[in-house]
Each structure stands twice: as structure tokens, then as C-alpha cells.
Design goal:
single chain, alpha+beta, Aminopeptidase, 14 strands
Length: 379
């Protein structure tokens, strides 16, 4: 394997066709690992992040693997600077299920070559933090085995995801609920029908331009009723990412944005993506004055549309909550990985379980794009 590291915008642009082709025929195929996702995320982040993309090619020059990262500055105990590699696009976006992309049948060779290069170039980074790795797709095992083979040290912790295997009819889905639950869902749907409300799915850019801001507003309305700012108010870069990626996803046929509207006003909205036969639920919001039944009626319709479209899974993504369980969701296990070179400052974080999500290791308040030339030149 011939390893290269791409950090320039032009180099990233030139990878587009090869990246997309490799992803489609890899075990890691996910919307979160598409070139389009990374491209929109980099645009939304502006100067805060730069790509650090490790590529593996066979001697004939064919692209065989990609490990997409960005490099971030952290402070340990508010004093010591630490450089942390994270999956490209994993913050302020709704990202889950990170992985490295490898040609099918060559995963062990590709992952091993990338991990060995990272070890040799370890003066460019102190830690690698890969959060929300799926435990059922083989991603966690592939990454863990490669890290061990490269003689890097690692720490893992468990987390949960939530999903529903969809039956072949909406009636079968409803049959899995208690009678009182079925009656409540049906009653909510009838109430909004009697009011003259309708549920529509976004199909045009004009609709998207109208409804996406309404989703942001309803998300904030939902959480502000509990004294919390909405996601898109707290994270303006995430709002910008949604604006950029939703347009691309609409063109690709990935975007599912459903809105419950009455007299031109949105009462509830839910956005997700359809990819590889699965629905991925990202964000939602509803008007508190309309009651939580607005969100219930809308989600029931999304389930119906998923089943009618022949989708096999409704994926709630991270965290398994009581709310998701009421819809029949079941938990499945994932992992977070913290990786470092042995006998390094990063190894201390691994040794003492200091994750880049706690108060002892926090990102800089603002950063310009971080150069990492030693990642290119070493190894």
C-alpha cells in the first residue's frame, strides 16, 4: 500500500469521484462518510477545520482506502495543548457511525497500512478520538484490530444506539404496540385531520427554502418550552451545515423532510435521510401550543412512508431513550475509541480515561485550520 495524506482543498476536490466509487463498494458505505457530507461540513466550518485525509493506494495507483480526519486543538486541564484527530464531519452535523473506507476484501490490509502510518507520523497528533462507532457492522472490530496490530494504545467505552426493524406493512407495526398506544396515535392523526392540517414531504428546493427555517424554529420552540435553546440556535454552524447538505441531499434523493402544516404554518417538522434502504432520523421540532400529538402524528406518517417505500430500518441513531422505546425501538451497542501512541502525552489520556468530551480535555474556543505537515512527511 502506498500511503498519502491530503490536506489541501484542491486535493480533497480531486478525490471526489474516486471517494464516491470506493464508498459505494465498501463495507463502510454510509451517508455520513460520503464526499458530499465532508464537503458541506468543511464549508460550514470555514476556517475552524481542515481535512487530513489519509489515503491508501495499490502499486498500480488504484484508491483502496480512505481514513478521513480533521485535526483539532484541545487543552488538557486548561493548560497543556493537545492535538486530536477526529473523523471528518463528526461535529455540529448529526454525524454517527464513523469508519475508514476500504475496498471490500482488502479491509485488513488497508486498515493495517493506515494505522501503521498514523503510528509513524504520531508527532503530528497526540490522540485520535473516534466516537459513536457501530458495534454491529464490523467497524469497531476493524478499527480495534488495526490499532492493536500497529502497536498503538487504545481505550474503549460503550454507548447505545436505537433502531426499529420495519415490517412489511404499517398494520404490522401498529400491531406491535399496546391497544392504548395504537388508539392514542390514531386519535392524534384524526384530530389534525379534522382541523384541516396536512402532512407533506419536501420535493423541491422552493419547499426546502421554506420549510427548513421552520424546522429550525420549531426545534427551538420545542426545547425552549423546557428552558433549553434549540440545537440550531446553540450551534449556528450546524444550521449552516443543514442548509448546505439538505440541498445536496434533495438532489441525490436522500432528503426526507416531512412537515405537518395548517393554513401554511408548520406545526411539526421532521428531517431525516434515506440511504441504503434505511431511514436515518436526524432532527425534529413541533409547536408546543399544538401539543406533543403534532409530533406523534407526524412520526406515524413517516413510519408509514418508510414502509410504503420498502425501507427495512428506521434508525433513531445515538442514545436509546424511553421516548424511542415507546415507538418499538430496541437498543444496540456501539463504542467510542480513544487512541494514542505508547509513551506519549496522549497515552496519559488513555491511561487515566480522560476523554475529549469532559471538563479535563476541552477544545480551544476557536481555532484556525490546523496544519499537520508532519503527518504527511513522517512515516
Amino acid at each position: 500500500m502506498e500511503i498519502d495524506v491530503i490536506e489541501s482543498p484542491s486535493g480533497f476536490e480531486q478525490l471526489r469521484a474516486e471517494w464516491s466509487e470506493l464508498l459505494q463498494q465498501s463495507a463502510a458505505n454510509s451517508i455520513f462518510l460520503t464526499w458530499d457530507w465532508a464537503h458541506c461540513w468543511l464549508r460550514a466550518q470555514a476556517a475552524r477545520a481542515a481535512p487530513v485525509i489519509v489515503t491508501a493506494r495499490c502499486p498500480q495507483g488504484r484508491l483502496m482506502g480512505i481514513a478521513p480526519f480533521s485535526l483539532w486543538r484541545y487543552r488538557a486541564f486548561s493548560v497543556y495543548p493537545i492535538s486530536v484527530l477526529r473523523p471528518l464531519g463528526d461535529t455540529e452535523s448529526g454525524f454517527d457511525y464513523p469508519d475508514w473506507i476500504a475496498s471490500k476484501g482488502h479491509e485488513s490490509e488497508v486498515y493495517g497500512a493506515i494505522a501503521k502510518h498514523l503510528r509513524k507520523a504520531s508527532s503530528a497528533w497526540d490522540c485520535i478520538f473516534i466516537a459513536n462507532v457501530s458495534g454491529w457492522s464490523g467497524a469497531c472490530s476493524r478499527l480495534s484490530d488495526a490499532v492493536d496490530a500497529a502497536r498503538l494504545t487504545k481505550l474503549m467505552r460503550s454507548n447505545e444506539f436505537s433502531h426499529i426493524r420495519l415490517p412489511d406493512s404499517y398494520a404490522k407495526l401498529m400491531a406491535g404496540f399496546k391497544k392504548s398506544r395504537r388508539q392514542n396515535i390514531a386519535a392524534d392523526a384524526r384530530r389534525f385531520e379534522r382541523m384541516g392540517a396536512r402532512i407533506v414531504r419536501c420535493e423541491t428546493q422552493t419547499q426546502l427554502d421554506t420549510w427548513l427555517p421552520q424546522l429550525f424554529h420549531l426545534n427551538h420552540r420545542r426545547w425552549s418550552a423546557k428552558g433549553i435553546s434549540g440545537t440550531f440556535v446553540r450551534k449556528p454552524r450546524e444550521a449552516e451545515f443543514y442548509r448546505l447538505f439538505s440541498s445536496i441531499a434533495l438532489e441525490r434523493g436522500w432528503l426526507w423532510l416531512h412537515v405537518l402544516e395548517l393554513d401554511g404554518a408548520a406545526l411539526a417538522a421532521q428531517i431525516g435521510y434515506v440511504y441504503n434502504g434505511r431511514y436515518l432520523a436526524l432532527q425534529e421540532g413541533f409547536e408546543p401550543e399544538a401539543g406533543s400529538g403534532a409530533g406523534t402524528a407526524l412520526r406515524a406518517r413517516v413510519f408509514s412512508d418508510c414502509i410504503e417505500a420498502g425501507l427495512t430500518e428506521y434508525d433513531f441513531l445515538g442514545d436509546h431513550t424511553e421516548h424511542k422505546a415507546r415507538w418499538g425501538a430496541t437498543p444496540r451497542a456501539g463504542r467510542d475509541l480513544l487512541i494514542a501512541r505508547r509513551w506519549s502525552i496522549g497515552a496519559l489520556a488513555v491511561r487515566f480515561s480522560i476523554w475529549p468530551t469532559g471538563r479535563f480535555l476541552q477544545p480551544e474556543p476557536f481555532q484556525e485550520a490546523v496544519p499537520s505537515q508532519s503527518l504527511v512527511t513522517e512515516g
